[in-house]
């Protein structure tokens, strides 16, 4: 909990400071006087002044945002000798630049963070597939357990432009993008040893828009990366120990059915109780231990999982998947960082647009609880993973702030577009109306995000 809390505060602190610093530096560069730079809201915890104008920097008790307060005649009286430094007296391009600088700073930070993660390198599962679910899209495409996906491409009139696939993480990313675009994805695969190459097509154009969410891989039939069917830790007193199973046992077959990988074994255990109602039935296992074959009778216990009754043996099933180190050089890493920032930004806009018109589930919205949870997990995985997570949240913050909603930077830019087209600013009456509407929309979005967070914690999603 302490790690999660500290990681969450660090994540928010870095992103808020960078966002507000973008506004601050651009305002100073445009000759606008900055009165206060605040990280957080509510009661002031720390306060200090610096700079020729004596800008007040404050840290507040509620770290869920921040603001930069500038000299502005609409908020307070301004002496005649400083009116030229008031925000409202600046030209339209300068005002727009100051407002846009916050989201731009977040997007630029994301590029650098993604680049740094690529420079450091990340340990990711090799793109070797486990057993696809029967009758699933992946199975119908011809994917099999042990397939090593080497490259991907999207068919076009000019042919397929093949790109090397470094890891399972990249495969899932490309599948998600193709599903959102309703486009097929071509894959070049070999066996686990790099032999017997073949090309197949994953027809993601048939995936309904509402299915593009966190469970997309499961819905198209792709589970975890390939894992050997070897048992890990065996819990004392559980079905596995009672049957005589031990850590290190390799499972060869269950009830005469050959076990290809850990995913096949897990599904067989889960379905053992469901197939027999709620009465567990013995399974005949053949395992290999120290070069010898043993025949054992295993009786899984019934357990509740998400409203369903499934089988459990109380042992860790499967070895960790084979990992690869994905790293890039200085220039390539920077290019990849810019590319990934653009892709995530486009994906975020697409997803928000689809949620708005009902083509994507509102379950995709996440709030502070999910961010805190993922922050803690990313920190424990290592620096590169945390930098990648920080980049993802930074992109989300930048894109969300550019939405044309009052109260957000995008709302102010919307006002400036209106002013540029009509030659006059939005009236005070409409500003007040739009402000109220914007607050209502933001509260609705925050409520949905918080509900989704709680639903995930309680296992309802």
Structural overview:
The structure is a single chain. With 461 residues, the chain is an alpha+beta fold. The chain has 3 domains: 90-121 and 328-461, no CATH class; 124-226 and 321-326, Roll (Pdz3 Domain), CATH 2.30.42.10; 231-319, Pdz3 Domain, CATH 2.30.42. Helix content is 43%, strand content 22%. The chain is built from 12 helices and 18 strands. It has helices at 2-29, 92-120, 137-140, 168-180, 216-219, 239-242, 262-275, 330-356, 368-381, 383-401, 409-422, 428-457; strands spanning 34-50, 55-70, 122-125, 148-153, 155-156, 159-160, 163-164, 185-190, 198-202, 231-234, 250-254, 257-258, 283-289, 292-298, 301-305, 308-312, 315-317, 323-326. The strands form 7 sheets. Strands 7-4-8-9 form a 4-stranded antiparallel sheet, with helices on one face. A hairpin with a 7-residue loop joins strand 8 (185-190) and strand 9. The longest helix is centred in the last third of the chain and has 30 residues, at 428-457. It starts with a helix and ends with a helix.
């Amino acid at each position: 909990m302490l790690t999660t809390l500290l990681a969450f505060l660090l994540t928010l602190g870095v992103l808020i400071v960078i966002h507000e610093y973008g506004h601050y530096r651009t305002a100073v560069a445009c000759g606008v006087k900055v009165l206060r730079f605040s990280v957080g809201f509510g009661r002031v915890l720390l306060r200090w002044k610096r700079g020729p104008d004596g800008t007040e920097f404050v840290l507040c008790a509620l770290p869920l945002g921040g603001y930069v307060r500038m000299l502005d005649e609409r908020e307070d009286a301004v002496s005649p000798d400083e009116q030229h430094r008031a925000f409202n007296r600046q030209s339209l391009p300068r005002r727009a630049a100051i407002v846009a600088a916050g989201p731009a700073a977040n997007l630029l930070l994301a590029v650098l963070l993604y680049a740094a993660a690529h420079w450091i390198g990340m340990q990711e599962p090799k793109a070797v597939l486990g057993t696809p679910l029967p009758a699933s899209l992946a199975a119908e495409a011809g994917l099999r357990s042990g397939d090593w996906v080497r490259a991907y491409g999207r068919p076009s009139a000019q042919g397929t432009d093949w790109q090397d696939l470094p890891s399972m993480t990249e495969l899932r990313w490309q599948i998600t993008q193709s599903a959102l675009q309703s486009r097929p994805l071509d894959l070049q695969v070999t066996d686990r040893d790099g032999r017997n190459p073949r090309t197949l097509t994953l027809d993601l154009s048939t995936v309904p828009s509402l299915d593009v969410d966190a469970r997309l891989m499961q819905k198209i039939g792709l589970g975890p990366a390939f894992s050997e069917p070897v048992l890990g830790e065996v819990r004392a007193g559980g079905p596995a120990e009672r049957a005589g199973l031990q850590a290190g046992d390799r499972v060869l077959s269950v009830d005469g059915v050959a076990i290809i990988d850990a995913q096949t074994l897990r599904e067989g255990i889960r379905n053992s109780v469901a197939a027999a109602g709620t009465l567990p039935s013995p399974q005949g296992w053949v395992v290999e231990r120290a070069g010898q074959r043993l025949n054992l009778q295993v009786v899984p216990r019934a357990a509740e999982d998400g409203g369903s009754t499934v089988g459990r043996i109380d042992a860790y099933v499967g070895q960790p998947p084979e990992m690869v180190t994905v790293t890039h050089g200085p220039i390539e890493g920077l290019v990849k960082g810019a590319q990934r920032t653009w892709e995530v930004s486009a994906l975020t806009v697409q997803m928000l647009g689809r949620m708005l018109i009902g083509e994507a589930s509102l379950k995709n919205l996440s709030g502070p609880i999910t961010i805190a949870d993922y922050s803690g997990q990313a920190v424990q995985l290592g620096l590169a993973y945390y930098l990648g997570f920080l980049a993802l949240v930074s992109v989300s913050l930048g894109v969300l702030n550019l939405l044309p909603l009052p109260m957000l930077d995008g709302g102010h830019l919307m006002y400036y577009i209106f002013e540029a087209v009509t030659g006059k600013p939005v009236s005070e009456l409409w500003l007040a109306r739009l402000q109220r509407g914007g607050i209502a929309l933001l509260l609705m979005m925050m409520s949905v995000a918080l509900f989704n967070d709680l639903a995930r914690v309680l296992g309802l999603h």
